[in-house]
Backbone:
């Protein structure tokens, strides 16, 4: 064991973090001073003695990852002291509109923030994703003497994160996968918003994590036991085949007169309390945002150490490139986030007359076709592999080699029945870089992961959800498994593509756009039941999110717009109406988000004025008013039964839709006047 | 330890369950035969020797509760054999449209089904809710010699349930609360859809549950170790201060040629396999749905025992009524699901000029006012008590008495940071009966519990979500906490009331309708920021879901419709437009669902034809096209900052809305023709 004795400057640095935490939250008059004050010592020991990162190049690939799962101002303070692109003025603008320091750290928003945290349980689970990504890329690219991919993932988390089910799911996965380079530090401060953790959280956390297969350790007096913190991390690093959880006993708001109470959890310290805090540590008591020059200097040296580590790594990587030019080229491309030239050529193309196939199967065909060309694809399923069809033939499982079931170079992940954990891990895999993760479950159960999906969209993580069994078309499993409200939930989420392809070409288009959208998550809603290959569909047209599948000569009587498995039913209805001499256009709208991103001119050419538009989809109709004058769908829950009988029960048949089409035409004839496209708005 | 030796008829009964499971799934050509076949012995031992229930009166209040968390055909088979309202023909109609035997058991749909299961993790967590309800009502109503409330909750669950985070959350709560009468039997069959549990689930389950504070036990050879099952349950009953988890080692699909493989998990047995199964147990090999007469007789006797237990309990309850008439009257009323006469009189009423108050605070005022009158109200929060304002002053915490923090008669529950677990527990509390549960969290984090909210709506559990901090109006916490997509998600969910009250009277109305809606869950979206008391609002009007807050004389130029915290901003905008000589109606629409339930005549009197309608809400605008011609809201995510600055950033100000109002009026003037209400549809 290496002895560790803090220098006086270490103590001053820790005091600086505490004082800044008090000041930052007081200036904003909002935020959480307690956790940063309690975690200041651990943060300083970790960053000054362990963390390998270069503040001048926050995206350096080989850096250690640090996640503050109990997202708070501590993150900003550390980043500022180290010289990331975050000034003292940014700290002063904490929680102000358009600042770099929003209430909770956001990925893609603030330099050095690895993932968005604040919603509890997410950051910890993202960190599991980081550790998986590291293990996978290391197993894939490292060579004897060239540990190109070789970093730790450190995560701080609190009681709240440990209570959230998403973190339980991720923790069980991490233990199973033996992720030795994941080191979590649990801030055991005994305080949550409701007061003492005794009111709701009395489980034995360390025992629970041991049950998951983790190495666990405990550090008492975590506010000043620098050596204990240091040694626990050293020990954790030595355990190579298990993730580590270090329980750090701290006093929340350490240094405040209210320390150890929930009074310092989510409210600023009072002015006199801040004064006494600064007096106690020898800081000018009336000066806010005071940072001793020598503390900046110390952190500057830490930053230089990181820059030096990067330069050493870069030299090694160049050497690696000489010996292993293919691997070098491949990893370089993936780190840059570029896709291989012409990968799209692999996408399957279909023509009318090709067999009817379920779109979950069409998805499998796409994955099979592109799997070799896009080695960054890293798949998985929440225990529905055979249903989601997410596993390409001969794929290797990502498993600890000791399991005998695969290895960490494997590209297929068994998430177990853990949708939320999977969602948060997918986010972490994407944020790590060089990996394009996808995960499968039934569409209905993407809702279990709503917390993670939302953060993928907010953060811009490219994650693909293979969401099969996407409607009442799943049949027998019944309403407990049949989504009704799910599509509109995710369509209403900004920066999230929901795709509901109607056939093979549209499925290829969905993958095309989802894979090319590097900062947007996608949900692909895929059918269990077979779908015919449609006349008029092409990848290029579907890639616009919406297009005219069937055009008429002259002025139409009606346009019917639909998605996914209902498009072929609508085509049948249009056929019936045509035999009655009516002119019916059919529009397929597989992705609202992508359609909305087209020019208004294009959009109006698809959903044009002049005749009514009727929408048809096997979901709640809410939201379709944006694209249609009349809407048909489900008024309530689905039903358990063979899928064709369920469709018939709800009137989703060619003949019923033809009837509704007639009613629509009749209604607008009677009404008179011009029928204006719903896309034409006042502002 | 009582010795237990099965009679030959016990074995025949178990064989019958297995054969029926094979037949039921084969007939449907869909379903899960493996789990019922593996669990047949445990089910028989439990129901024949322990379970106190009366099949002729499935709602008898004092019954033991049984939850099949891994929801499958086993539930229907047992209910049929016992003589619940489920015929052999119902079994034959398994997974057929409109049958009593949908793919997964549904509460309110099939006699004897205690909660809807199938979505994994939910049933187990509902069972925790049952055990809480039992402990609470027992502590509240039982008297020396009168254990009126005294039942066990038994739950069967599989690997899938144990992997789901929602179950982890609920399990930790159950351990903390020392729920001694909860007995869970874990079907450890080592098989999930993806194959052997080794691929994803290698944690030490029993150790984990010990860490949560559970009593744990293990039974080997669970397919034939009847005595082991029996004794484990007896032992579990003896442990009064801990919930129990019995790990039952079983072979999935026991008796099938494919037993022990995932081939029997979710697919029917092949014909020859069923034949050999029946030959092996001495059943006519070609006959389907064969039930020996003597098995019906045995189950009939079990049922009689249940009926006798009920009659004994009823006699005891009558005695109780003589000694404790008030408690008797109160409990009787609550069991019947009736509300106290005139409780609504307690609802606070406001008038213009009363102080502006945040609707979360108005909610607290309502709860305080009705708390004494409605003792069935059982509140709580997911560690946001001081923010949600869900705890009425001097409320007692529901806590194990040994904690010194409260007792089980307490009506306030500390859920910890466990939204999904809370949601599923709320459902269980409601399904138990005699309790009206509510739970608080930020509106954004109701999404973490989406899986449970959906089942509340599908099942008709009366559960009230106190969802505070309901928009960008929460300010500093920022976009990670600001819902944008959340309202439309839940508005699109059938049988779910979303309320977004604009002031005090509307908050009272929301509670009025939510509490009177006995089979519908509600989400009350409540502001962090203060809201003025509006001119024109009344409880009666708001209770219609939507109403004209401000009417004009003659024909209006514009109607603006809004909800919650934006209504007062719209009123301000209307004022500005009025000073410009325009006639502006203002409509408040606190609940779409309740408004939609009004007559078309009423609805058209509120959102009438003749002038354009503009909607304003601080969420995604998707869905508002149903009620308005033009929509204003958030185009993307929110922002972190003081709430008024955030509102200004997004144009949610009186002056900007007045501008948009003018644009709307202008646009429709130019367009010409009649402006028709969006509520008028073709079919």
Residues:
């Amino acid at each position: 064991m290496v002895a560790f004795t803090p220098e006086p400057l270490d103590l001053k640095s820790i005091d600086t973090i505490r004082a800044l935490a008090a000041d930052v939250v007081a200036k904003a008059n909002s935020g959480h001073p307690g956790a940063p004050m309690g975690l200041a010592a651990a943060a300083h020991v970790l960053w000054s003695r362990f963390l390998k990162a270069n503040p001048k190049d926050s995206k350096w690939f080989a850096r250690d990852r640090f996640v503050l799962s109990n997202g708070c101002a501590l993150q900003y303070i550390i980043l500022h002291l180290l010289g990331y692109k975050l000034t003292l003025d940014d700290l002063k603008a904490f929680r102000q509109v358009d600042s770099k320091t929003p209430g909770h750290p956001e990925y893609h928003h603030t330099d050095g923030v690895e993932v968005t945290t604040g919603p509890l349980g997410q950051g910890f689970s993202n960190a599991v994703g980081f550790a998986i990504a590291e293990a996978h890329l290391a197993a894939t690219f490292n060579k004897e003497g060239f540990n190109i991919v070789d970093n730790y993932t450190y995560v701080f988390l609190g009681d709240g994160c440990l209570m959230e089910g998403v973190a339980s799911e991720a923790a069980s996965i991490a233990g199973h996968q033996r992720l030795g380079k994941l080191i979590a530090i649990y801030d055991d401060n005994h305080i949550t918003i409701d007061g003492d953790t005794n009111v709701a959280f009395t489980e034995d956390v360390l025992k629970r994590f041991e049950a998951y297969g983790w190495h666990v350790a405990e550090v008492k007096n975590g506010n000043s036991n620098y050596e204990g913190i240091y040694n626990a991390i050293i020990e954790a690093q030595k355990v190579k085949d298990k993730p580590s959880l270090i329980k750090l006993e701290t006093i929340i708001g350490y240094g405040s007169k209210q320390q150890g109470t929930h009074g310092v959890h989510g409210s600023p310290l009072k002015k006199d309390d801040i004064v006494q805090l600064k007096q106690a540590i020898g800081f000018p008591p009336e000066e806010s945002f005071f940072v001793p020059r020598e503390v900046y200097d110390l952190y500057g040296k830490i930053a230089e150490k990181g820059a030096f580590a990067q330069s050493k790594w870069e030299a090694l990587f160049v050497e690696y490139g000489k010996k292993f030019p293919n691997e070098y080229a491949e990893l370089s491309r993936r780190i840059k986030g570029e896709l291989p030239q012409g990968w799209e050529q692999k996408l399957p193309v279909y023509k009318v007359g090709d067999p009817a196939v379920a779109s979950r199967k069409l998805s499998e065909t796409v994955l099979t076709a592109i799997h070799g060309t896009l080695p960054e694809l890293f798949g998985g399923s929440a225990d529905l592999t055979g249903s989601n069809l997410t596993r390409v033939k001969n794929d290797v499982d990502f498993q600890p080699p000791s399991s005998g079931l695969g290895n960490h170079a494997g590209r297929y992940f068994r998430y177990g029945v853990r949708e939320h954990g999977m969602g948060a891990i997918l986010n972490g895999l994407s944020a790590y870089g060089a990996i394009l993760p996808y995960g499968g479950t039934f569409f209905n159960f993407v809702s279990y992961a709503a917390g993670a999906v939302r953060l993928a969209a907010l953060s811009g993580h490219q994650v693909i959800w293979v969401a099969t069994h996407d409607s009442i078309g799943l049949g027998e499993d019944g309403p407990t498994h049949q989504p009704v409200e799910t599509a509109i939930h995710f369509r209403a989420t900004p920066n999230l593509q929901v795709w509901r392809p109607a056939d093979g070409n549209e499925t290829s288009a969905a993958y095309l756009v989802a894979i090319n959208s590097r900062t947007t998550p996608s949900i692909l809603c895929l059918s269990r039941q077979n779908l015919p290959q449609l006349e008029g569909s092409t990848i290029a047209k579907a890639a616009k999110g919406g297009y005219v599948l069937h055009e008429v000569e002259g002025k139409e009587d009606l346009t019917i717009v639909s998605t996914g498995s209902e498009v072929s039913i609508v085509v049948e209805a249009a056929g019936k109406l045509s035999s009655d001499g009516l002119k019916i256009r059919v529009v397929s709208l597989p992705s609202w988000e992508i359609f909305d991103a087209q020019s208004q001119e294009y959009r109006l050419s698809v959903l044009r004025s002049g005749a009514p538009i009727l929408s048809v989809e096997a979901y709640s109709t809410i939201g379709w008013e944006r694209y249609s004058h009349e809407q048909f769908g489900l008024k309530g829950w689905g039903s358990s039964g063979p899928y064709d009988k369920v469709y018939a029960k709800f009137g989703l048949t060619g003949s019923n839709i033809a009837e509704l089409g007639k009613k629509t035409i009749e209604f607008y004839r009677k009404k008179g006047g011009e029928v204006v496209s719903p896309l034409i708005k006042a502002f």
The mean pLDDT of chain B is 97. The longest strand of chain B covers residues 613-620.
